[in-house]
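@channel anyone free to eyeball this complex?
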Amino acid sequence: MNLDAPLPTVRRSRWTGLGAFIGTELRVQLHEVLSIATSIIVQAVFLVFVGVLARQYLSYTLVGAVVFSTFQIGQRVQNESAWIRIDHKLHELYHASPMTPEAYFLGMSIGILLAYCLPILVLFTASAYLVPLSVPACLLLVAILGAEFVFTASVGYMISTWFKNMRSIWPYSTLFFNFFGVLPPVFYPLFLFPKALQPLALLLPTSGGAALAENAAGILPLPIGWIVLASVSLVVAASLAFVGAVYWARRISRER
Amino acid sequence: MNSQALRAESVRKIYRGRGGPDIEALSGVSLHVSRGERISLLGRNGAGKTTFLRIASTLLAPTSGTVEIFGQDAIADPESVRPYLAVVPQEGKPFMHLTPREQAYTYLRARGFTRETAKSRADHALEQMGLTEVADRLSITLSGGQRQRTMVATVIATEAPLLFLDEPTIGMDPFARRGVWESFRELTAKGCTILLTTHYLDEAEALSQRLYIVDRGRLLAEGTADDLKRSVGGTLRVSVVSGDGISQQLSTFGPLVRDGDTVHVITGPHGLREILALAAHADLTATVGPVTLEEAFLRVVGRSINDES
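replying in thread with the prediction:
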């Protein structure tokens, strides 16, 4: 034993372990086949309701379902992060290591996204054919979904760290689902929302994203000012949430 | 090269009470661990062991005090020392949907090891922990002890220069514990440093080159297990059940240590016959054995390590 030997050199970057942790989380999530398969059950039920009750709005519901399915990834990040922190204490294993807190947060989020992307792809493909979406509209929808994912995963991760037990977290899933998904015009068109509140709806990442996607698909005409408002709002929300989550991940990696 | 793996000075931690009084979990703890040492923090539940271990391993900020790891300030710049650490968290569990092999392998990959190194180290650690037969079963199907061994295997496979192990053998059977102890000895022989917490006296004695007795957020004693046993004042322990009534006479043979209604007389071979006669005369049961760490703990802390009060 040579106790005077220098410490081993550790190659470390901000993203050390990111790929490996994405793989870890993906392996874990892929065991939840039923959860993945049923992850769009609410969206499917809404599609059936709208198809029966107001068929003329079905294309809005379809696009909204794609946007909201991506948004739901954040709730899964929130629950997974809280679960492995509170129940498994695995965040301690990973934080006291060369892996940075931001790699941990992002690895978990991307792993969950990859696991749950198949149902989203099904909805996306259905939208592309049934709405239908042009290639530029598809590309724009992908960009919108990317921003939705960044926003929602970041917020979900931050929220997950605020609680000491899982029971306290459950109500937040319900709150987010209804506040971001059911009430604002995500599954129904913006013009059915009260006129005075329509600009406010554009500020929400879900309803704003859905409006942008529907506009790109040519089914929801929007004034240019509203397009700018929704776009800027989505980009700013996603950017702020991501920066906030990275800051928070670093801070929370050592509890106070 | 800094010969000290860990140096903590005057570490205090106050948990802010939420609707209740603040709790001082650590009251100025100072300790040092040299490279290659195996050190135990021995104490009852709630003594402050885990709080100290979490602070030292950069997972919890202290209220005040300093912690250096390999000469670097772990309080001001925790990320700079984290590559040299690995932690077995208290009551940690592996991912339920990973096998022990996957858990250890993916963790090593996340720490930046190559595929080959991660595979060989994971296999070796699982073998050391006696998990080879269940290495490809999902953790959700394993017993509590096997899951705990998976956590230990995952961490020892890193061979990180400084390992923090919080109650690493909790829930394990005696065979498994001995296997874990052996692997810890191998690691320190390779140059790794280990700081572990335990409330198992036999574990502290079997494993530690030095140990610290912790109670109510303070370090009350430090030394080898033999040092601490010697400090009790004798080599033999005569335990007299319900011996309070004759405690005055017993005290003439050596220091007394009380554990519930049992009075332990710490003595040598010289007074043995008289003490046993005294107990027999009072119609009390007395047993004789060597002084153990239990008596040292009782003498230092004033209560048994199993006393939950």
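from a first look: The interface with chain B takes residues 1-8, 10-12, 16-17, 20-21, 23-24, 27-28, 31-32, 84, 87-90, 92-100, 107, 250, 253-256 of chain A (CB under 8 Å).
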